[in-house]
Amino acid sequence: PVRSRVSDDDAKTRRVMASELSIDPVVGWLVCVEGVEKGNDYRIFSEKNFIGRSSRMHISIKGDRTISRDKHAILSFNPRNNSYKIQPGESSGIVYLNGREVDVPMDLKEYDVIELGKTRLLFVPLCGKGFQWS
Predict the structure, then answer these.
(1) Number of helices and strands (H, E) in the chain?
(2) Using the 8-state DSSP alphabet, how is residue 79 labeled?
């Protein structure tokens, strides 16, 4: 019988931090403070985190139908400099940071508020000056 082998090109891409630590550790959270999923929290991982309603998204906010299914926004964590950014995704939905429209990548700071559709999310970082995964 012929065995099929997964080539390096077909293997699942791993995040840099996951590759170095052998796990994909949480680097922060979004906490829903207003909206259908109020009280829920969502883990943020290293590099890009796609936000949308679909279960295929890294951060899936299922209850708010005013959020696009796929890639409403992108929240990223850069492990080289411990920085977080929010940027618009590929959908027609608008993203707000502390009430201001996000039309280019913007830096995130502790307890910033991100708005998508009718949902408000509080940003809670883990990694930064006081803590880093190493």
Answers:
(1) 1, 11
(2) T
